Amino acid sequence: MKLGNKIILVVISIIGLYAGFLIISDLTTISDKISNFNTNFIPLIFLLVTTGMLVLFLRWHLLLRNAKIFIPVKDSFLIYTAGFSLSIIPGKVGELIKSQLLKSKFDIPRTKTVPVVLLEQLYTVIGIIIISFFGIWYFQLGVYVFSFFLIALIAVLTLISSRRLFDKAIKFLGKRKFTSKFVTPLSSSYDSIKDGSRGRILLFSSGLSVIFWFIESVTVFLILMAFGINDIEFLKVIPTYTTSILLGILSFLPLGVGVVEGSLVGFFSLQGIETSLAFTVVIIIRLFTRWYPVSFGFIMLKISGGLKLRETNDT
Questions:
Q1: Domain ranges in the chain?
Q2: In this predicted model, what pLDDT tens digit does every residue of 209-248 receive, in sequence order?
Q3: How far apart are CA 226 and CA 281, in angstroms?
Q4: What is the pTM of this model?
């Protein structure tokens, strides 16, 4: 299936999902809730989300330099933000398009860039686990999800620290049909992944990831305030939001669509927010934190020539 058809299929599915949310919540009620949204918060919300994107770009650029990949900052930014667009496609295609663009524009081997993409995912999880810890005791339901991901992260870091254990894990994955296709790229990426997950780059990348998730949590807090919801403490917003994101990651769905929204609505409802209002708040949160970057990414993808590149690869 061509990229364009995949995108159309996913977008239609997501629109259908959101339409279902709206119908369940009663369109009239939703309209009333949105009319109460304080638009004075919008410029600050956009500023925060954009700042978060820049923080992630800085992490990307540092990881490239650590991997001895030196390209102009302008091109690096264009390629990185283009990846936001395809994050709506299952299978992390949106992340791998960056490797393809680097290969196409600068003839950099994918064996050097794929590890950078994998490290990004690792640091994303490290960042969300660290920031979740500071508010986890304010949201007891999040303790279980936090603990699961913490154990999984420790296991991954242990594998990275030992070539012998890493090779055993690769051998195990090779026996599974679903994961066998990842064996070759993972096996050849061990040294790069290990080098990118220790020392100063570990400290800087983890720190930037924490800053990103902090900014996102502040964004969610401001959206709640814009709706006049002032009785949920910021330290409670952090684990509430990050737990829903972790559940979305666990689902392996693009952007965790459906899982993030549904769990976050449930979590807000448990904290005393009316269900119809919770649906409205969650949709607005997702529009700002995920669909704004995706839309921006499509513009960058078009400018970078990524759409043409993918169409060529599909033929």
A1: 3-314
A2: 999 999 999 999 999 999 999 989 898 999 999 999 999 8
A3: 10
A4: 0.85
